[in-house]
Amino acid sequence: MLTLYGMTDSGNCYKPRLLLAKLRVPFRHVEVSTVDGGTRTADYLAKNPNGKVPLLESEDGRVLAESNAILLHLAEGTRFLPTDAYERALAYQWLFFEQYSHEPQIAVRRSLVKYPHLSAAASEKRMAALLDGGNKALAVMEQRLARAPFFAGEGLCVADIALYAYTHDAEAAGFELARFPFVSAWLARVAADEGHVEIGWKPA
Question: Among 73, 99, 183, 184, which residue carries the largest CB count within 10 Å?
Fold first, then answer.
């Protein structure tokens, strides 16, 4: 059985849990938190020297880090990775966008709001910059979703799962999703897709 190490309330850790739920692949969840130092223990660093979550471990002991790399691995041969070369490249494009332009703004602002131990770094100037950057990322998404129902092709894929993870909770970080009606409609489509689970879900 696969083992997934991660934080239940982390968007990056939600991504592979959501895909595994949709694929109906059984896995074991092990809670490892950056908040309590769990990612810095010797045992965990032996698995992932970068000291971050999520981390996927297969039965044979091989490990894979980085949320979007895990998504691509799990999606191989499924409906969540386009077979058309151009659409697959689009999926990669939006995965890179998520990590470079979206997550550093929206996810970081969410963390500064959500976790008290990080609040000292939440200066007014920094929070305003993150809000501006996040709104720019949402505006880019809005333009794409005004022309297509999903980010790569006509069906939901890994790019949608990656972008959904933090976008669906963006209002908790102070973003006004009502300003982005196509993004809001897309969020509803993703949530309506078969096998959807909420961010707090983990296997029993």
Answer: 183
